[in-house]
Amino acid sequence: MRLELRHVTKKFGDFIANDAIDLIVEPGQIHALLGENGAGKSTLMNVLYGLYEADGGEILLDGVPVHFSGPGDAMAAGIGMVHQHFMLIPVFTVAENVILGSEPTTGGLIDIAQARAVVREISDRFGFDVDPDALVETLPVGVQQRVEIIKALSRHAQILILDEPTAVLTPQETDELMDIMRQLATAGASIVFITHKLREVQEVADEITVIRLGKVVGHTKPTASQNELASMMVGRHVDLEVTKPQATAGDVALEVTGLELLDTDGRVLLDDLSFSVARGEVLAVAGVQGNGQTELAETLIGLRRPTAGSVVLHRAAEDGGQVVEDLTGKSVKAILASGVGFVPEDRGKDGMVAGFTIAENLILDQVTSAPFSQWGAMNMRAIAHNASERVAEYDVRSGSSSAALATLSGGNQQKVVMARELSRDLTVLIASQPTRGLDIGSIEFIHSRILQQREKGTAVVIVSTELNEVTALADRIAVMYEGRFVGIVPPDTPRHVLGLMMAGVSYDDAIAQSQGHETDPGEIMEGIWQ
Amino acid sequence: MSTAVLLDDLVTDHMRPRSWKLPIALSVFTLAAAFGFAGTTSSTAISQVAIVTGNRWLGTINLALPSLTSEIVLVAAMLCVTGSAWWASATRTTAFGKVRLGSWMGIIFGTCFVASFLLWAVAGRGASLQFTSLLSGALFLSVPLIFGAMAGTVCEHVGVINVSIEGQLLAGAFLAAVVGAVSQNPWLGLISAPVAGAVIGALLALFAVRYWVDHIIVGVVLNVLVTGLTSYLFSTVLTRNTAVFSATVKLPKWQIPVLSEIPVIGPVLFNQNALVYLMYIAVIALQILLFKSKWGLRLRACGEHPRAADTVGIKVNRTRVLNTILGGAIAGLGGAYFTVANGLAFGKQMSAGRGYIALAAMILGGWKPKGALVAALLFGFADNLQNALGVVGVEVPSQFMLMAPYLVTIFAVAGLVGRVRPPAMEGKPYKG
């Protein structure tokens, strides 16, 4: 089915999310929609899928204008969507999720046999290996995504929208998904692939449309170089390489021994982790979302109490000597005070108080100490002074430091969080997903600040699911899988080896496996890209 | 997708921490029975139990049990269950919850405990414990609870917390009584009861779904509203013209052939009025439809992940509104049991907090119709114990009897009986 969007416009109040967007997707084509977070890609697709109503323009399917008043209409017209956050009901089985909304029935009840047959048929056709009776919440993320694809295909989708489908996948799962996309395209489906990852675009797309600030800024072919694509996406020249000086690792600053964390049901979240981080070193914890990285960061900062093991800090004393401090089981306040900085994973939820002003957010952790507090009252002058300094230093773009933090863009919010955490003298910095959802400009800025800390001699722990970020910043990479470290490896470890390790394969096995594949040109290309 | 779920398969039994909660709780109950009941029973005492079978040939069975011996047998049975629970915890196998046999062990234990209490209470007294009326009284007191719990189950699965069950019961009772009295037709009264409940349900839906007001606050406000309104109308309109408004009408009792001949439970279950039969149908139908029908699947999708439901073309808020009204109608129908079903006149606040107990039954029943049915029967049974024991002349304070079901609820909700999960998005407005 041929999809054509003509001058589609979507406004939210005064904000124009999509400004007269034109897009043509031919049958059997994989069309990448490339743009930064917030460029308006998802909004456009939600308009196409009937979740939002367009303020202008029209949608044509095979040349016929259509109007959707809800997702039901879009599905009936042959459009399927795999959302970034899966639209699956965790407590339902695969079959129940697939048929929801278009249930086959016999005698008033759901015909579950037919539902299973539908799942099996599609699953077998594409080699998905999905059990129709499995509860969705027990399935790994990659399989859940296949359930989403089955769901779309079972409704005879001829146009498939994939919204940031690789965000939650391991590199290997990503490759498998790309194979599936090619299979679907060969079978005649039109695929709209939304992403901000350049490597994936080059690998799988037939056509590329780049969107910036709600406008189409260009069309290109996957033969364009990564730097060209990035420049189109951002609107200026960007340097994708992070240049960092040689590590000058000093003494050990953070020492973690036998760290173990169980949840209330006794399931192991952290499994006997031992590692140390030296001054001036970046340890990046890589892994697929949900393998214990979040819990590790939260345990280090004291938000969770470990069931076993210890966290010990070695910091410089005022007399020049060393102070050894056991942080295990201490309160967050005490841990922060002993020189640990923390950038939480979910900025909006844990990193800031959205309704507070920039100035207030900048002193959240020091509000009870001088000079921000005097005689039990807040010293507004000191707070304002601090805010103007930090805002200038961290290039926070806002009208005024008394604006609520919620009114700022994600990148500027993260700069405020970073400014707050880095304004103390740190021995250790723990940053969880420091650049998630940010534009390339902000990513560059945050990365440079993290490396600046490294040069100052701070021990840095970065938790990230983005392999690009991990390899760019790390001096050592710890790959985490199901609560344990599969291995701690150097940053020049090939991408596919890291990918295998993220699926639980040990370093030696991963190396051995990848050597067997050395003649595969695809693998070699990957090695070049990373 | 949480880590925990991913890790579940990986955790072997020896990694699971031992939970001693269950064996300790069972031990406490066993000790209470052994020392509190068996230990204080005189060795010569006799416990008399009368069982009216309702069967032509069996008639009434009068049992005279040697109290102490019976107590010892019951305590021994409880010890067996407790012992196996200790063993299960020590070896980290799942005794309760997952294994089918386990829940039966729980039922056996509970039955033995209650029996040991009853035999102890009537030991050495002249009068017999009326076993059959113990059951029929329990059912009588359970019917409104069951309707209320069904209403709660429907509403919560669609994502709306229905605290206004109390108000819906009361409104149903009121309208059924008035319509029944004015028309002199109990059937018209019965039909009007769900209408009253549905109106309250519609108000709940309006504020909770349309205007995103906190569901619990709206629910409580509606309860106060209905209590005030019915009390006002009762003391103004109804009492001034009792001849018209408080004339009582009553649904006839229907005896089901064959089934009502079953000894003991036949007369208890199958010689009832139409509303009780409707209750049986409602529980069975909801149990099947909620989990096996298109309606149920869509309804639960709205309560678990409304956005996902929206993306497959289900109108979430419309589904929520309609089913909240349906829930209100079910509770309203249950309200008729207070009045026309049993030929009683309306009285101020006659639902007496049963709407809240219904909510507790729904939770104890794990948000499932059959579970809620069992829980509501349990509450009705405990409520009825004071009547049954009063007849025999036992001076256990009735308040203690009334406390028992709530203690059970607290233990159950605290996770003793195994984890149950409410619908994920209940009480959260869907803003599209």
What does this structure look like?
The complex is a heterodimer of chains A (530) and B (432). Chain A is globular, with a radius of gyration of 25 Å. In chain A, strands 6-9-10-3-11-12 form a 6-stranded mixed β-sheet, sandwiched between helices. Chain A has a 6-stranded mixed β-sheet with strand order 18-21-22-15-23-24, sandwiched between helices. In chain A, helix 4 (112-125) packs across helix 5 (141-154), helix 14 (410-422) runs parallel beside helix 15 and helix 17 crosses helix 18. In chain A, strand 7 (105-106) and strand 8 form a beta hairpin. Chain A is of the alpha/beta class and 530 residues long. The relative contact order of chain A is 0.10. The model of chain A is unreliable at 518-530 (pLDDT under 50). Chain B has 432 residues and is mainly α. Chain B folds into 2 domains: 17-126, no CATH class; 136-387, Orthogonal Bundle (ABC transporter involved in vitamin B12 uptake, BtuC). Helices cover 66% and strands 5% of the residues of chain B. Chain B has helices at 3-7, 21-37, 67-90, 100-122, 131-158, 165-183, 186-210, 215-240, 242-245, 265-270, 274-292, 294-304, 306-311, 316-335, 354-364, 369-392, 398-413; strands at residues 46-52, 60-66, 129-130, 253-255, 271-273. A 3-stranded mixed β-sheet of chain B has the order 2-1-3. The longest helix of chain B has 28 residues, at 131-158. Chain B is globular. Chain B starts with a helix and ends in a 19-residue tail after the last helix. The relative contact order of chain B is 0.15. The model of chain B is unreliable at 1-15 and 95-101 (pLDDT under 50). Chains A and B meet through helix 2, strand 8 and helix 5 of A and helix 1, helix 12 and helix 13 of B.
